[in-house]
Description:
Elements: E1 19-27, E2 30-39, H1 64-69, H2 76-80, H3 84-94, H4 99-113, H5 118-137, H6 141-148, H7 152-170
Antiparallel strand pairs: 1-2
Domain Transposase Helix-turn-helix: 124-170
InterPro entries: Transposase_HTH_dom
Pfam families: HTH_Tnp_4 (PF13613)
Amino acid sequence: MQVETQTDPCTWTLEPDMLSLFLCCMQDCNAETQATFPSKKETKYAAWGTSYGVRDSACDPMNIDSLKSTCSFRGYPSVSVCSSEKASDILKSIAGVSLPVFSKLQSIVVEALNVSGEEEIVNASNKLLLFLMKLKLNLSYSALAVFFGMHRTTCSRHFLLILNLLHAKMRCLIYWPSRSTI
């Protein structure tokens, strides 16, 4: 297997002494994240005649106190405990649908999977949320596995199950004109 990367030349920096830093996080020969950052040279004597303020800063908006007091993401139960307005905002952010749309899809999935009992309904809701997150955020199965606490192949199976189920149940809702009409 061969891995290649290609970057465009850095055209937004005019100073010859300004460095360009390229970061690439790899996992099993797959590029996960690639970013190019301008890196300002930190010296006492600014040779290019302009003084740049260089300082360390964090770009992680984590609030450590809130992490200690709350649990991590637990799938659909993390969303369902919120108020309906907040749950709708969360679902729009991570799944691309509002709470009423999610509830309608949830009822279709629960009915199609013929599940009963609170735990089975939560499992069906998690499968639906996983499916919608994959579509909206284009996360890898490995990333979804971390969020939902399961193996990546299990995530893949759940995604395909919900895809086939929703395709079968909702295909009549999409109008396909005939070739002669087109």
